[in-house]
Design goal:
The chain is α/β, with parallel strands linked by helices. It folds into 2 domains: 61-266, 3-Layer(aba) Sandwich (Rossmann fold); 282-317, no CATH class. The chain has 12 helices and 10 strands. The strands form 2 sheets. The protein has an 8-stranded mixed sheet, sandwiched between helices. Strands 9-10 form a two-stranded antiparallel ribbon.
């Protein structure tokens, strides 16, 4: 135990930081022991990372759990695949950025990390968090060879490890990930990516390197890969399903504060239910029957200068 603590301290202070073999060896040991990984996570956060108030980073229980699950290896030797369902505003995307940063720190040499999302802005969210983690710490920043923010944005470490971000939409037909073989893959707002596009481009990309495959988001229908990952019995042995509620989100743990109070979270839930009611019961807010990705109101706007002044409801009995 003393030797492990000494090695961990050495890594956290940067001594022997460019010894790839020792870095990867200790990280692999921790990936097979959750308590060791928990200690490594806390040591890394308090040594290298800071929060918005420039304090050593302390994660909430929900965030800590997400990071640990992303970094752990399965005891049966199979590929790590996660489907994560968590409330908005719970800090889940930030937690994923911490997992990516730690993975890059211990795998600096020739790894390929991908952040995918349905839009460029969504893909940039986790990417920018990771950028801040590296740029805000002198030692971590010293590991970076190049930051690139436009035209195939990426963060490249001096050892050769690259983190890339890319949108995955029908307009680009999945070209960013096609033919790539990442060693760590995060898909934010996964359910919003077209199902066929996802199956044809994303799922094949994780095969070669058995990359940790982390999907995040709330499925909007049953005809979606994320719904299958979360609820289909056929995927139960393949995907670990992480379901978090608002009660999990408001737990402070060792962090400085929780994201919401119970009252604030209940208010958000009430607002969400009201929004859902109007979406289901008002014409212009309902999904357009020929394209569920847009509302009736947005479809009407796309057609031209048209105003909806009434409608007839038909029911089959």
């Amino acid at each position: 135990m003393m030797k492990e603590q000494k090695n961990l301290k050495s890594l956290m202070t940067g001594k022997g930081g460019l010894d790839s073999r020792s870095l990867e060896k200790i990280f692999k040991q921790c990936r097979q022991d959750k308590e060791k990984m928990r200690k490594l996570l806390k040591a890394f956060c308090t040594t290298y990372l800071i929060d918005g108030k420039q304090r050593p980073l302390l994660l909430r229980p929900l965030q800590e759990d997400i990071v640990l699950e992303c970094l752990m290896e399965r005891t049966d030797g199979k590929q790590t695949k996660l489907a994560i369902l968590a409330p908005r505003g719970s800090g889940k995307s930030f937690a994923l950025s911490v997992a990516v940063t730690i993975y890059m720190f211990f795998n600096r040499f020739r790894d390929l990390i991908f952040i995918l999302a349905p839009t460029e802005d969504q893909a940039a969210l986790i990417f920018n968090y990771v950028y801040r983690h590296f740029a805000d710490n002198t030692f971590l920043n010293g590991l970076v060879g190049n930051y690139r923010f436009h035209n195939k944005p990426n963060i490249t470490l001096k050892g050769g490890t690259i983190m890339r971000r890319a949108p995955l939409a029908p307009s680009n037909q999945g070209q960013a990930i096609r033919g790539q073989h990442p060693t760590f893959l995060v898909v934010d707002e996964s359910p919003l990516i077209d199902d066929k596009l996802f199956i044809d481009n994303v799922e094949p990309a994780i095969v070669a390197n058995k990359a940790p495959f982390i999907n995040l988001g709330t499925p909007k229908s049953k005809d979606n890969h994320m719904y299958r990952y979360l609820y289909d019995d056929g995927y139960a042995d393949t995907f670990k399903r992480l379901h978090y509620t608002w009660r999990d989100a408001v737990k402070k743990g060792e962090a400085y504060s929780a994201p919401y109070t119970d009252e604030e979270m209940l208010d958000k839930i009430a607002q969400g239910k009201i929004k859902r009611f109007f979406k289901d019961n008002t014409l212009v807010n309902q999904d357009f029957i020929k394209d569920s990705k847009i509302s009736v109101g947005n479809y009407v706007k796309s057609v031209g200068n048209i105003e909806v002044i009434g409608f007839a409801r038909v029911a089959l009995v």
